[in-house]
Design goal:
two-stranded antiparallel ribbon, 21 helices, globular, 1% strand, 495 residues, mainly alpha
C-alpha cells in the first residue's frame, strides 16, 4: 500500500494516466474513412457538400475558440478542460453516428473544432505536475502515446473495413467505447495546484551562506537576444542582472491577485519578449505558413482520393496510408535527433529545399490521376512536414523556458489558423470561390512552392553573407576571435 502511495506521488503517475488518455482518445478507426462514410448510403451527402460546406466549419470554429480555451485552460488548471475535451469528443462521435444532413454535420465540425482547441490542455497539463528535470521524458511519453493511438486507430480501421468485420456505424459505436475509457482516465487525473499565469508557484530567491542573493527560481524573462548580450558582456555583475527582475517579480505577484487584466498584460509582455529575436520570428513564420498548408492538405486529402478513385468501386486503403505516414513521420522526427548538422546555419536552406519536395509531392498527387501515386505522395508530404516541424520546434524552443514554449507555439498555431481561415473562406467555402478539389490541391502545391523559394533564397543569402564575413580580414587578431565567439553565442548551439 505504501508503495502504491509513493508511486501516486511520483511524476510517473500523472504521466501514465495522461498517456492512457492520449492513446484511447486518439484511436479513431473511422477517421481515415470519413469521406466514404459521409458520401455513402449512411449519410447520402455529396463530395461537394462535404468539401465546400461541412469541412470549412472546423477551421472557423477552431480559430474562434482557441484563445478563450487557452485562457480558460490556465484559469481552470488544465484538468477540467481535459475532461471537457473528452466529453465533447464523445458527443462529437455520437453526433456523427446519429445525425444526418448538412446542418447537423456542420454542428459536428464545430464541436470537433472545440475538441482540437482543447489540445492545449493536454500538452500543458503535464508541465504543472512534474519537475523541470522530467519535462523531456514526460513530453516524449505523451506524444508517443498519441502517435501510437493514431497509428493503431488507422490500422484497426483498415482491417475492419478491408475484411468487412464491422460496418461504419458499428465502428463508431466501438469508438464511443474507447472514448468512454479515455473519459474515465481523465477523471482520475490529479488536480494541479499551479498553472502558467493565474495560479503560480511562489518565486523563491536562494541565498548563499552570507545572505547574498545568488539565483531566482522559476524566473526567466529574458529574450534570446538579451541572453546573448549578457553572455557577451561577462563583466555585468549578478546583482545588476537580478535588479532587472524586480519589476517582473512584482508583475508576477500582481497577476496572482490582480485578476485577468494583469494576467493579460503579463502575457502580452512575455509575447513581445519572445518575438524580439529575429531568428525566432523567421522560424515561427515558416511554422505558421507550413502548418496552414499542412492542415489544408490533411483535411481535404480524402476528398482528392475519392475524386481520383471513388470508394464505391475500389477497396480503399486510407487507414494503411495514414498508419504508414504516421510511422514514417515519427521515424523522420526521431532520426533528426541524431543529426550533427548546424541548423542555425543550414536550417533555412533545408526548409526551402524540403518544402520544394513537399510541393512536388502535392503536384504529383494532383496530376497523376493514380490512387497509388496519391498515396505515396501523401506519405512523402506528411513525413517531410513531421521532419521539418521537429527541426523548427527545437530551434524555437532553444533558450526558452516552458512558459514561453507554450506561448510561442500557441501564437504560431493561431497565426496558422488565421491564414488557414483566409484560404478556406476564399478557396474552399461555397460562399467564396468554392473551387473543385483538383484546383484546390494545385493551389496548395503552388503555395508550398512559394514557401520553398522564399526560404531557400533567404538561406542562400545568409550563408553567403556569413561566408563573406568570415573571409574578411581584421587588423586586430583579438577582435577576430572575439567576433567569432560572439557569432557562436548569437547563432546558438548546434542541434
Amino acid at each position: 500500500m505504501d508503495t502504491l502511495k509513493r508511486w501516486m506521488r511520483d511524476w510517473k503517475y500523472p504521466t501514465s494516466l495522461l498517456c492512457i488518455y492520449g492513446f484511447f482518445s486518439t484511436v479513431k478507426p473511422l477517421e481515415p474513412f470519413l469521406i466514404p462514410f459521409l458520401t455513402g448510403p449512411d449519410k447520402n451527402l455529396t463530395i461537394e457538400q462535404v468539401t465546400n460546406q461541412i469541412f470549412p466549419v472546423w477551421t472557423y470554429s477552431y480559430l474562434t475558440v482557441l484563445i478563450p480555451v487557452f485562457l480558460l485552460t490556465d484559469w481552470l488548471r488544465y484538468k477540467p478542460v481535459v475532461v471537457f475535451q473528452c466529453l465533447v469528443l464523445f458527443a462529437t462521435t455520437a453526433m456523427i453516428l446519429w445525425c444526418k444532413g448538412v446542418r447537423e454535420m456542420q454542428a459536428v465540425q464545430f464541436t470537433y473544432g472545440v475538441v482540437t482547441s482543447c489540445d492545449v490542455a493536454y500538452f500543458t497539463y503535464i508541465y504543472s505536475m512534474v519537475e523541470l528535470k522530467h519535462y523531456l521524458k514526460a513530453t516524449s511519453y505523451c506524444r508517443t502515446a498519441q502517435l501510437l493511438g493514431y497509428t493503431v486507430g488507422s490500422v484497426l480501421g483498415q482491417v475492419l473495413v478491408s475484411f468487412e468485420l464491422m460496418s461504419y456505424s458499428y465502428i463508431l459505436v466501438f469508438t464511443l467505447v474507447l472514448t468512454a475509457v479515455a473519459l474515465i482516465t481523465s477523471i482520475l487525473l490529479p488536480m494541479p495546484k499551479t498553472s502558467m499565469f493565474f495560479h503560480q508557484r511562489s518565486r523563491v530567491r536562494e541565498t548563499d551562506g552570507e545572505g547574498h542573493v545568488e539565483t531566482v527560481k522559476h524566473l526567466d524573462l529574458q529574450s534570446n537576444d538579451q541572453k546573448d548580450a549578457v553572455e557577451v558582456d561577462g563583466s555585468k555583475p549578478k546583482q545588476e542582472i537580478l535588479e532587472g527582475f524586480n519589476d517582473c517579480d512584482s508583475g508576477v505577484k500582481s497577476s496572482k491577485t490582480g485578476g485577468c487584466g494583469d494576467v493579460l498584460l503579463r502575457l502580452w509582455r512575455d509575447f513581445l519578449l519572445c518575438f524580439s529575436s529575429r531568428t525566432l520570428i523567421i522560424w515561427s513564420a515558416w511554422w505558421a505558413l507550413s502548418t496552414c498548408g499542412y492542415n489544408q492538405t490533411v483535411n481535404y486529402v480524402q476528398s482528392l482520393w475519392e475524386h481520383v478513385e471513388p470508394s464505391s468501386n475500389f477497396t480503399v486503403y486510407n487507414g494503411g496510408v495514414e498508419a504508414l505516414s504516421n510511422l514514417f513521420g515519427a521515424a523522420a522526427a526521431y532520426g533528426i535527433g541524431f543529426s550533427s548538422a548546424d541548423w542555425s546555419r543550414w536550417g533555412e536552406m533545408a526548409l526551402g529545399a524540403l518544402s520544394a519536395l513537399e510541393a512536388g509531392a502535392l503536384f504529383a498527387m494532383v496530376f497523376s490521376a493514380n490512387i497509388w501515386v496519391c498515396y505515396c505522395g501523401y506519405i512523402i508530404f506528411k513525413s517531410l512536414y513531421m521532419l521539418l516541424i521537429t527541426i523548427a520546434m527545437f530551434q524555437i524552443a532553444a533558450g526558452l523556458n516552458m512558459e514561453r514554449y507554450a506561448l510561442v507555439f500557441g501564437a504560431n498555431t493561431f497565426c496558422a489558423l488565421v491564414l488557414q481561415t483566409i484560404i478556406t473562406s476564399v478557396v474552399v467555402d461555397s460562399s467564396g470561390l468554392g473551387l473543385d478539389i483538383v484546383t484546390q490541391f494545385t493551389i496548395y502545391g503552388g503555395y508550398f512552392s512559394v514557401i520553398a523559394i522564399v526560404f531557400f533564397l533567404r538561406g542562400l543569402y545568409i550563408t553567403v553573407c556569413r561566408k563573406h564575413e568570415m573571409e574578411t580580414p581584421r587588423e586586430n587578431p583579438e577582435e577576430t576571435f572575439k567576433a567569432e565567439d560572439d557569432a557562436q553565442i548569437i547563432i546558438g548551439t548546434k542541434f
